[in-house]
Design brief:
This protein is mainly alpha-helical and 113 residues long. It is built from four helices and no strands.
Length: 113
């Protein structure tokens, strides 16, 4: 099986990532509403917990991959000039990878430093 540029797999991935992100945001809002952290140290301890750290990391990876699939489809549909399309897709990919690395650095800093 190979990964296709269009079709069922990207559609399914976007739906699965959207469901995970919605569940995470509902959990996050409920947790903040029911027992809000009172200061920076409480926030830091909350995000340093391995389960919360991993759930947050998965949320951001899902978010950035969700963005990649959606914007890639828009770019492929509306940019017909192949060299411009390639530059835009590469720029988008580099930007999303950079954001992912930045988020992991921030989460690592909160959890371990």
């Amino acid at each position: 099986m190979r990964w296709s540029l269009g079709g069922f797999r990207p559609w399914l991935f976007q739906r699965i990532s959207a469901v995970y992100m919605l569940g995470f945001l509902l959990f996050f809002m409920l947790a903040i509403y029911s027992c809000p952290p009172t200061d920076y140290q409480a926030w830091r301890e909350w995000f340093a917990h391995p389960v919360m750290w991993m759930a947050t990391a998965i949320f951001f990876v899902s978010l950035f991959l969700h963005v990649w699939v959606g914007l890639r489809d828009v770019i492929l549909d509306y940019l017909h000039n192949v060299p411009i399309r390639l530059v835009v897709l590469i720029s988008l990919g580099i930007s999303l990878i950079s954001l992912t690395l930045w988020v992991f650095r921030a989460l690592f800093t909160v959890a371990y430093l």
